[in-house]
Specification:
Layout: H1 8-18, H2 29-52, H3 57-75, H4 99-117, H5 122-125, H6 131-151, H7 155-169, H8 184-192, H9 201-222, H10 225-237, H11 243-259, H12 262-280, H13 284-295, H14 307-316, H15 320-348, H16 362-369, H17 374-383, H18 389-405, H19 410-425, H20 433-452, H21 456-494, H22 496-516, H23 526-546, H24 551-561, H25 563-568, H26 573-586, H27 595-604, H28 608-618, H29 620-631, H30 644-666, H31 675-689, H32 693-719
Helix pairs in contact: 1-12, 1-27, 2-3, 2-9, 2-18, 2-21, 3-4, 3-9, 3-21, 4-6, 6-7, 6-8, 6-21, 7-21, 9-14, 9-18, 9-21, 10-11, 10-16, 11-12, 11-13, 11-15, 12-13, 12-27, 13-27, 13-28, 15-29, 15-30, 17-18, 17-19, 18-20, 20-21, 21-24, 22-23, 23-24, 23-26, 24-26, 26-29, 27-28, 30-31, ...
InterPro entries: DctM (IPR010656), TRAP_DctM-Dct_fused (IPR011853)
Keywords: Cell inner membrane, Cell membrane, Membrane, Transmembrane, Transmembrane helix, Transport
Function: Part of the tripartite ATP-independent periplasmic (TRAP) transport system.
């Protein structure tokens, strides 16, 4: 039984169906060339500025937004159903694109560049905008909302519009949510002319970091890094019980390092693993659930982790290295939990691994494709040497281009690594002329090898296409980030974030007081119980908001609204940020709108809702681990007061709890479990995951009878005569 991929065209249609961010319209040849040229220019702009120096903040963000919004009106159709409608040119549709889309694109470009154009006079305009400023701001907001609706969907624009109405008419509301209200001029002044709105942190992070890493992921996949990861996972894990399911876990974990997209991971890795799991004997819904759950780990797996991780740099004022370190153990716990549930499921149903004859050899896979890993090594090496994330991305992309042009030549790969190590050691790897000099040398080598290769022009075309596709995949997140800027701007203008925080903490305190009236005094802690209820409410809102809003937007909104509530209760900022981030990602496998699970269900021909429920069960570790690092912050390594003793105890008991909980949820450890053993181990797992030594010891004591019963039943089963 070999692992074979599904039809690429069918997979592309499937990704478009479930991911609005890649639902592009068909274009006529001439228009397609124009759009491709603009997309390539956008990628080239970001690639150049990452290596040779960013422009002035307002100019850089303005150019990025002009490209993004203008392209969205050319790439995304007015209505969802039109993305399969063949393009037809006419008087009202020049180049096969409706005239109003050309007008909207032009308006988006002008309105996006207007603010950077008047930047030198902003000091005289902020607080007292001129009529033209208000007009341009109004145009910018309208085209931004429409671009976001097309590329991301309705929920985010609806939230933004609702909050703008609140900003203007807040005086009409009762109680704590009331505020004096604002004129439209005051609202657009704050949202457009200051750095607290559209041109704020969210857009800046996408323009400075996220775009580069999306482009890196596309290029790395093109040169074979994705194939290396999947084949290596198959070689290492395929032979064991439930082989393709374990390939799915390891493959998704490694592929997620360069992707950062749950749906893209599901479709790419699942095209190989889902059919193989079904052929092995996994039920359709289980195969789909395993792949989607493993794939959602992509957004929490370092080093890329999706856009939210880069936003943490700006919000928390921490180096990216710290974010990566903080993410390591929680991500490992997610995959650890999925792995053991898959293993116990395979044992329960007698599912074997893939025959050794059908597996690739790890040594052969590494020998064939190891140069494809050089760009990732370069990126990590530069990143952890203390340089900026965008400079690391620049050199990662450069390495991808070099490796791609030289057809993964081992000599070139080793040579490039040696040059990078020497440049870092000599302190030459900076923005400016030193970087230009190194880049020029690399370009000469790259060109020389390309000229020697008979297929050089085809390789060049493929690299250019990767730059085009990378930009195409990144424009939707740019629009979403700018729209989130509207939401953040209204929150800072009205102070509604702190008002909501007070409402949440007050309600949590009331629930805690009610609980205290039931529990004995020795078991009740008012502050701890208030924090628990606040966390539960925050988690629920994150999941509900994630049903219709992309993870990045979900994260920013919840950080703006929920983080102050958690801060009031003494939760460290990085812990609060990771908490809302994790629950935003969890929405991808949480019904009723579990997009990653539903995409996998379509690939498997399974019931979507059943797949979503199973995926949520498989991903339960991801749902519980955030509570662990709130109460045991040492799990994130970089928190205040970190000690290795606390870290080892918390990580060990959490891992043991995840392991025991996996057995309880599956209903099998050594043999099938009766109900009392599942309940006993379930309680034990929860107690062990609580970062408290007393709770952990009680959890171990609770687990012992069930584990002994499992051992005895296993021995009886082994001693029983066969047949």
């Amino acid at each position: 039984m070999k692992i074979e991929a599904m039809d690429p065209n069918a997979l592309q249609k499937l990704e478009e169906e479930f991911d609005s961010e890649v639902r592009f319209r068909p274009l006529l040849p001439a228009t397609a060339w124009l759009v491709a040229g603009l997309l390539f220019a956008l990628s080239a702009f970001h690639y150049y500025t990452a290596g040779f120096g960013l422009l002035r903040e307002a100019t850089h963000r303005g150019i990025h937004m002009a490209f993004v919004l203008g392209l969205i009106f050319l790439v995304f159709p007015l209505l969802k159903r039109d993305h399969h409608t063949p393009a037809q040119a006419g008087i009202l549709a020049p180049g096969g694109i409706a005239l109003y889309d050309w007008i909207l694109a032009a308006g988006a470009v002008v309105a996006s560049l207007y603010m950077p154009w008047i930047y030198d006079d902003l000091a005289f305009r902020v607080g007292n905008p001129e009529p033209l400023d208000v007009a341009m701001a109004t145009i910018a907001i309208l085209v931004l909302l429409e671009a976001t609706r097309r590329s991301v969907g309705w929920p985010l624009p609806i939230i933004a519009v609702s909050l703008m109405v609140y900003a203007m008419y807040g005086q009409s509301l009762p109680g704590i949510l009331a505020h004096p209200g604002n004129s439209w001029s005051a609202v657009v002044n704050h949202l457009y002319l200051t750095s607290n709105g559209i041109y704020g942190i969210a857009l800046g992070v996408v323009a400075t970091y996220v775009f580069h890493y999306v482009l890196f992921g596309v290029l790395a996949t093109r040169i074979g890094l994705g194939r290396l990861f999947i084949d290596l996972a198959t070689a290492l894990a395929g032979r064991y019980s439930g082989g393709p399911a374990k390939v799915s876990i390891f493959g998704s974990a490694m592929f997620g390092m360069i992707s950062g997209s749950s749906i893209a991971n599901t479709v790419t890795v699942g095209s190989l693993t889902i059919p193989a799991m079904m052929r092995l004997g996994y039920p359709r819904h289980m195969a789909a659930a395993i792949e989607s759950t493993a794939s959602t780990g992509g957004q929490i797996t370092p080093p890329i982790m999706g856009a939210a991780a880069f936003l943490m740099i700006e919000f928390l004022n921490l180096p990216y290295q710290s974010i990566v370190l903080a993410a390591l153990i929680p991500a490992a716990m997610h995959f650890f939990g999925v792995f053991w549930q898959v293993h116990f499921e395979a044992k329960k149903n007698g599912l074997k691994g893939i025959p050794a004859a059908d597996l690739p050899k790890a040594r052969e896979v590494i020998a064939r494709d190891w140069p494809a890993a050089v760009p990732l090594v370069v990126l990590l090496m530069v990143l952890f040497s203390g340089f900026t994330p965008y400079l690391a991305a620049f050199w990662g992309i450069t390495a991808c281009v070099l490796v791609g042009f030289t057809r993964r030549n081992p000599v070139v790969a080793v040579g490039f690594l040696a040059v990078m190590i020497a440049a870092i050691a000599a302190g030459l790897l900076t923005e400016g002329w030193a970087t230009v000099s190194i880049f020029a040398g690399v370009a000469v080598v790259c060109a020389a090898f390309a000229l020697r290769d008979a297929e050089g022009k085809f390789l060049t075309a493929d690299m250019i296409d990767a730059f085009v596709v990378g930009a195409k995949y990144a424009i939707a997140v740019g629009a979403a980030a700018a729209t989130v800027g509207i939401i953040v701007g209204v929150v800072t203008l009205t102070g509604v974030g702190f008002k909501i925080s007070n409402i949440v903490t007050s309600f949590a305190a009331q629930l805690a007081a009610f609980t205290g009236s039931i529990l004995p005094a020795w078991a009740y802690d008012a502050k701890g119980m208030t924090l628990f209820y606040t966390l539960v409410m925050t988690a629920i809102v994150c999941i509900l908001l994630g049903c219709g809003v992309p993870t990045t937007a979900n994260y920013i909104i919840m950080v703006t609204v929920a983080a102050p509530a958690l801060a009031l209760l003494g939760v460290e900022p990085i812990v609060a940020h990771f908490f809302v981030f994790y629950y935003g990602v969890l929405a991808d496998i949480t019904p009723p709108v579990a997009l990653a699970a539903y995409a996998a269900a379509s690939m498997a021909g399974a019931d979507p809702f059943k797949t979503g429920n199973t995926a949520f069960r498989l991903g339960l570790a991801k749902a519980l681990v955030p509570f662990v690092f709130v109460y045991g912050p040492s799990l994130l390594i970089v928190t205040k007061g970190f000690t290795w003793t606390d870290f080892v105890v918390t990580a060990a008991t959490c891992a043991l709890g995840v392991f025991i909980l996996a057995a309880a949820l599956t209903g099998h450890a050594l043999v099938r479990m009766p109900l009392w053993q599942r309940l006993s181990l379930g309680l034990s797992g929860l107690l062990l995951m609580a970062p408290n030594l007393t709770a952990s010891l009680v959890g171990i004591a609770v687990a012992v009878p069930a584990l002994l019963a499992q051992l005895a039943a296993s021995r009886r089963e082994a001693a029983a005569p066969v047949g």
